[in-house]
Design brief:
Blueprint: H1 2-20, E1 23-27, E2 36-39, E3 45-52, E4 56-63, E5 70-76, E6 84-91, E7 102-109, E8 115-117, H2 119-130, E9 134-140, E10 147-152, H3 159-170, H4 177-180, E11 182-186, H5 196-211, E12 215-222, H6 230-250, E13 258-262, H7 275-281, E14 283-290
Parallel strand pairs: 1-10, 12-13
Antiparallel strand pairs: 2-3, 3-4, 4-5, 5-8, 6-7, 6-9, 9-10, 11-14, 12-14
Amino acid sequence: MKLHVLILSVGCLLAIASDSKAAMRQYSANADTSHWTLDKTTRLSCELNHEVPYYGDAIFSSTASKNKDLTFNLDMVVRPESYDFAGLQSVPPAWRAGNPVRDISKMQLLKKFDGELDNSIAWEILTELEKGNYPTFYYKDWQNSSDQISVALSSVNFRDMYWAFLQCRDNLLAYSFEDIAFTVMNYKKNSSMLTKSSRKRLEMIGEYLKNDENIESIYISAYSDSYGGRNTNMVLSRKRADTIKRYMEEMGVPSEKVRTDGFGEKRHVEPNDNALGRRKNRRVIIQIARS
């Protein structure tokens, strides 16, 4: 038994001695160089950035959507040359040296890609920063097998920008481009006035368009039911499309990016012999593309 314990102890000492030979290259901002900035403060996206000197940037971001999920991105100037994992720990600052280091998670390193973490881990990193700790990544250097790398996020000057980021995130739209890129809306009978639910939908689209400068094109196609004269219905469908176009222009979309068509009684999606079918045929379709 004593022999087994002795062998185990010797083995542990050899492992420690071996690890001690590896050089630890450390990257972190100090008190003078620790800066946090808030970028892309629109209703579509918010980014909280922290520069790690001589290494890259740590970026927390949220985009407009129902859940407004958080994403963490470790933007490396020199990206991985192999596939591996980086350990992630919460390290207390030097003036809290007696506090324990806590394991948080692992981050997968993909060849030629930046490091990314999803919503739950990204929030955990932020809360550790809020407590004054230094979330730190550890991995074996892919350029030099004898070196270890540590990358720490500094909590110095963090709190004010974090609060601004939270406020920006709270103001994000609760829907994304994918939610409004293709929309079908309906009209009241013999009118170019949208139904109540469709007006709300159009207001959502308008609010999105006010905040997105990358809209490439909008195609509006309008249709009628088969009640009334064919020519009258054609004119009515074109009027419906033009009304939507004017609204888009009021939201800041250049006129040349918006194309309209009125098809009148053509291309029905439901029979016209009942009220429900006619209501579905009185429609406008909006298709939006962005660059």
